[in-house]
Amino acid sequence: MSRNFYRQIHQTQYAKILSDVTDSDDSLYRTEQWGTARINAANINRIWNMNQYSSSVYSSSYNSDYMTFRRKTFQLDETFRNYLMQGASANPVFQRLMGEKYIVSNRVVKGYQLYKNYGQTKVYKNEAVAPVIYGTNRLLSQSDYEKLPYPYNQIAFLSAAVVDETHSVAINTDNPSGTTDNNITDNTPNADNTILPANSGNTTDAAPTNVLTVRDIVSSAPLASLSVPDDFTVQTTKAQTLTIPYEANTVGNSAQGTRVLFLRFEIQNNLPTHDVTVYLDGVRNKLTSVSHDYYNENTTFTYAVALGDTQTQSVLTFEKGNYTILNMEASIGYLPDKTASQALYQSVFRPDTSCSESADSASSGHTISGTIAMKTDGYLVTSIPYDKGFQILIDGENVTCQKVNTAFLGCRLSAGTHKITILYHAPGLTIGKTVSLIGLLLILLHCGLLFFFHRKNPQFPGIPKPHKHIISSSQTES
């Protein structure tokens, strides 16, 4: 790493900018730094303050559900050679799903509006992203989600929360957790595609849960297919380009939301010991050499890039190598605008900022607390990766944690205003502390016994004392 690059990524200006952004917004959203692939690699796992909440991760002890979601379920672009390096993504659907409301960058961020200008570095804002924690009754069953083709497997998360259908049940308003079996009834779909308690007729006190179908998801986001080349081979020693044309947006973001190009193809590497790199409008996908220690297995390149209103073409850039492009498909669609997004993000979690230094603060390391006013019975949905160490308290009562959106933390929640507390207990922490304490006690006992027996019998070896090493004059001279 050069000295100039080190200084570039460690500018103290970034700390001030990030603090300005996070301090000005008391809601719960994420803030990302975005730049070149090299800058993004340097910023993985980097946060400038405790309220930044980056979605990037680089760890050998990664969350398996989150990793599977990024690489297999959602099929994000793989930017780096090392599959453990999961950086910030330019995919606008993923940015919305993860609640990336602010992006700090020295580049224009399409789909976002300029929020603050700090000279060369700027902050961009998107009001249509999901809160990190919200409540909704718009649901899609896991089995229906798995039927969705690309790119609806991504778009679906902007229309509904994906839940296990065995949990898509009505909630007794007297028990928001729904943890007692007596409060769960068998349910059948209603004519208007909602779920009602089987014995309630149409007069249930609990608002019906709105369950969407595959047809609902597809019809809510019509896509226009683009003409792309059939299978072809790239054999080059320098970068080559391919232009993908399309019509300009004549409607504008204010009416339809961000316009997005979705593109996917398979890669057959004809030189397996060499990397393959392909860019789409600057977004990189990489397949590493099979001999690489952290071979990323990225044989399907998937892209989603935001487009400008007047943009009429995108450019694929093929880096040097010998590889075949197979089964290319491309389409253009529009993401929901802010008004349409509110149909999903019906009830927003409000962090508790009244005691920022206490264990009950909005986010004190292992705890998130606040309130939510649920408009209808439904689910509490987060973009916090699911882990067995999480505990959710609703109005002080422990509830059953569930996976939502295939990989994230959530639970059932009834209508009304609730106090929400999310705690994290590191798996094995209690056992580790206990074992460490036992070890410390054994050491103290051992030392105490040595001291005791040595006092009774000076010949008995006591606690060894450190030896002083005396340097002779001959050693000094040498």
From TrEMBL:
UniProt-listed InterPro entries: Uncharacterised_YfhO
Q: Does the keyword Transmembrane apply?
A: yes
The highest taxon in the source lineage is Bacteria
Q: Which residues cross the membrane?
A: 435-453
Q: Which UniProt keywords apply?
A: Membrane, Transmembrane, Transmembrane helix
| Protein name per its UniProtKB record | Uncharacterized protein
This protein's species is: Mediterraneibacter butyricigenes
